[in-house]
C-alpha cells in the first residue's frame, strides 16, 4: 500500500433528537397530562490508534465521517434512541490538528488510545419536562443541539527508537537491510528511498529496537531542494540519530565532512530540538578502503569535524561492523530508558 503521511478529513458528530410535544390520551381520562419524551443524544466521533495501520492512504479516498444522529422523543414519555458513536481507526503515531484554529487536539502514540474529536449534540426536552404546579399542560419543548463539525489535519509521525540520517546514496537503506528484516528499495542512484522505512533490529533473544530510514537530504532541502525536509518529522520521535556518511564517495572532489555539515545545517533550520538529539556518526562503505587506509580516513574526518561523540566504522554491504553497532545502540537505549548518565569518557579507539 502506498505510504501517505498527511491527510485532511471532516468529522461530523450526530445531531440531538428533538423533544416531543404530546399529551396523554386515554379512555375515560379527561384532560390527560403531558407525556412527550426527550430526544436521544447524537453520537460522537472518536479517533482510535491502531498499531496494525502504517499509512493514511485510506483517508485520501474516505474524507468525511459522520456519526449517527439521535432520534426524536415520542409520546408516552418515550425517549428517542441515541446515535451510535463512530470510531475512526488511524495509525499509531498520528498527530491531529484542527485545520481552522491550528489547535493541537491529540497525539495518538499508544495502541488503542482513544480521543473524542467531535461532540455529539444533546437531545431536546419533551414537554413533560416543563410540567409544574402552575402549568399542567405545557406546550414547550426544545430542539436537539447540532453535533460538532470539524476539519482535521492528520499527520503521521512514525514511531522508531533510532533514525538514519544522511545524504542520498550514503547507504542508509543498505544499512537498515543489513541490520533488520526490512527490504527497502536499493539502487545505485540518488533518491531511491521515496518514503520512510521501518525495520526491527534484533540484538538478543529478548532485545530489539525499531530503526527508521528516511529519504536522503541534500543542501538546500529546507528550501525545497531534492525531496525537501517533509520526512524529517518522522525523526522527531526517535531517541537517537545515526548520521550515515559515505567515506569513499564516487566523486573524488567530494568531502565527507562537507556532507555532514550540510545535513547539520538543514537539521537546525528544520527544528532546533531535532538538531540537539543525540547523534552518532556511522562511517559507511569501509569495504572500499584498504585496512591501512581505514583508520587514517576515520581520524582525518573526526579531526576535521572536531567530532567528540561516538563514531562507528561499518560496511552495510558486507555487514562488517553492524553487529557491534547494534549492540552499542541497544546499550544506549537501555541507558536512556533508565534515565542514567554515562560518566565514562568516550574513547574513539574502541570503535
* Count of β-strands: 14
How far is the first residue's CA from the last residue's CA? 39 Å
Number of domains: 2
Alpha-beta classification: alpha/beta
- Give average pLDDT, whole number: 85
According to CATH, what is the class of the largest domain?
Alpha Beta
Run of helices and strands? EEEEEEEEEHEEEHHEHEH
Please supply descriptive tags for the structure shown above.
5-stranded mixed sheet; 2 domains; 14 strands; Spo0b-associated Gtp-binding Protein, Chain: A; Rossmann fold; 351 residues; alpha/beta; rod-shaped; 6-stranded mixed sheet
List strands and helices in order, with pairings.
Blueprint: E1 6-12, E2 45-50, E3 64-66, E4 86-91, E5 94-98, E6 104-108, E7 114-118, E8 149-156, E9 162-165, H1 172-179, E10 197-202, E11 208-213, E12 240-246, H2 256-270, H3 272-275, E13 279-284, H4 293-305, E14 311-313, H5 322-338
Parallel strand pairs: 1-3, 2-4, 9-11, 9-12, 12-13, 13-14
Antiparallel strand pairs: 1-8, 2-7, 5-6, 5-8, 10-11
How does this structure look, described?
This protein folds into two domains: 6-156, GTP1/OBG domain (Spo0b-associated Gtp-binding Protein, Chain: A, Distorted Sandwich), CATH 2.70.210.12; 162-350, P-loop containing nucleotide triphosphate hydrolases (Rossmann fold). It contains five helices and 14 strands. The chain has a six-stranded mixed beta sheet with strand order 10-11-9-12-13-14, with helices on both faces. Residues 340-346 have low confidence and may be disordered. β5 and β6 form a beta hairpin. It has 351 residues and is of the alpha/beta class.
Amino acid at each position: 500500500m502506498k505510504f501517505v503521511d498527511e491527510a485532511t478529513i471532516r468529522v461530523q458528530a450526530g445531531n440531538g433528537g428533538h423533544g416531543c410535544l404530546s399529551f396523554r390520551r386515554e379512555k375515560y381520562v379527561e384532560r390527560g397530562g403531558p407525556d412527550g419524551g426527550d430526544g436521544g443524544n447524537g453520537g460522537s466521533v472518536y479517533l482510535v490508534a491502531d498499531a496494525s495501520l502504517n499509512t493514511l492512504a485510506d483517508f485520501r479516498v474516505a474524507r468525511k465521517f459522520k456519526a449517527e444522529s439521535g432520534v426524536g422523543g415520542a409520546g408516552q414519555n418515550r425517549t428517542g434512541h441515541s446515535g451510535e458513536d463512530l470510531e475512526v481507526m488511524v495509525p499509531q503515531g498520528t498527530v491531529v490538528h484542527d485545520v481552522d484554529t491550528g489547535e493541537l487536539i491529540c497525539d495518538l502514540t499508544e495502541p488503542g488510545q482513544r480521543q473524542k474529536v467531535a461532540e455529539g449534540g444533546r437531545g431536546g426536552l419533551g414537554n413533560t419536562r416543563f410540567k409544574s404546579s402552575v402549568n399542567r399542560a405545557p406546550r414547550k419543548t426544545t430542539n436537539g443541539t447540532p453535533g460538532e463539525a470539524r476539519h482535521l489535519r492528520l499527520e503521521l509521525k512514525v514511531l522508531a527508537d533510532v533514525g538514519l540520517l544522511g545524504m542520498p546514496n550514503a547507504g542508509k537503506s543498505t544499512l537498515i537491510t543489513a541490520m533488520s528484516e526490512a527490504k527497502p528499495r536499493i539502487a545505485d542512484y540518488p533518491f531511491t528511498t521515496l518514503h520512510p522505512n521501518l525495520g526491527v533490529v534484533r540484538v538478543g533473544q529478548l532485545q530489539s529496537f525499531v530503526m527508521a530510514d528516511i529519504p536522503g537530504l541534500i543542501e538546500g532541502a529546507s528550501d525545497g531542494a531534492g525531496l525537501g525536509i517533509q520526512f524529517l518529522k518522522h525523526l522527531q520521535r526517535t531517541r537517537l540519530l545515526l548520521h550515515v556518511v559515505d567515506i569513499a564517495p564516487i566523486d573524488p572532489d567530494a568531502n565527507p565532512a562537507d556532507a555532514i555539515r550540510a545535513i547539520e545545517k538543514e537539521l537546525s533550520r528544520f527544528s532546533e530540538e531535532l538538531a540537539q538529539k543525540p547523534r552518532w556518526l556511522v562511517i559507511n562503505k569501509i569495504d572500499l578502503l584498504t585496512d591501512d587506509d581505514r583508520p587514517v580516513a576515520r581520524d582525518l574526518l573526526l579531526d576535521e569535524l572536531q567530532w567528540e561523540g561516538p563514531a562507528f566504522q561499518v560496511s552495510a554491504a558486507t555487514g562488517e561492523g553492524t553487529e557491534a553497532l547494534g549492540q552499542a545502540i541497544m546499550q544506549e537505549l537501555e541507558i536512556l530508558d533508565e534515565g542514567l548518565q554515562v560518566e565514562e569518557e568516550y574513547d574513539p579507539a574502541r570503535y
